[in-house]
Amino acid sequence: MKKLLLMNLLIFTAILGACSNSEANSQDKTENNTEDVAADDQEKINKDLKEKAIEIDFPVSEEVQVEDEVMISGEVTVGPGEEQLGNDFSVETQGGIFEIMNLQLDTEVNEGDQVTVYGTYRGEDADTGLPSINATIVEQK
Predict the structure, then answer these.
(1) Which residues contact 117 (CB under 8 A, 6 or more apart)?
(2) pTM, two decimal places
(3) Which of 61, 93, 118, 137 could form an SS bridge with 74, CB 3.0 to 4.6 Å?
């Protein structure tokens, strides 16, 4: 009787061990697939934004509406007496200065860097009156 009970206990333990191991492997594969899909989706979103974005300059045309996808190129600047907050910065184009709210946390820019910014036009900043862009792509030249 003890042998039968011991045998059943060993079989039960082996079955549980096998099930939990396959669940862990399945979960790892699902997480990796999700990360791959997310990266592929972001690449597609970035490609679409670059294709749709309209190049703008200062002063911004009245045809450009808030939420339009836009692109600017210029030099990263921080005005005299101003501080650069977090990832936010300013870009001086040939026509004037744009305020950039950088939504790309892994991008670091420094004063003097030449950049191309793709993002969504936010209109004029209430405090400064400068045109503002939510940047989802910041490319350094």
Answers:
(1) 71, 72, 73, 91, 98, 100, 133, 135, 137, 138, 139
(2) 0.69
(3) 93
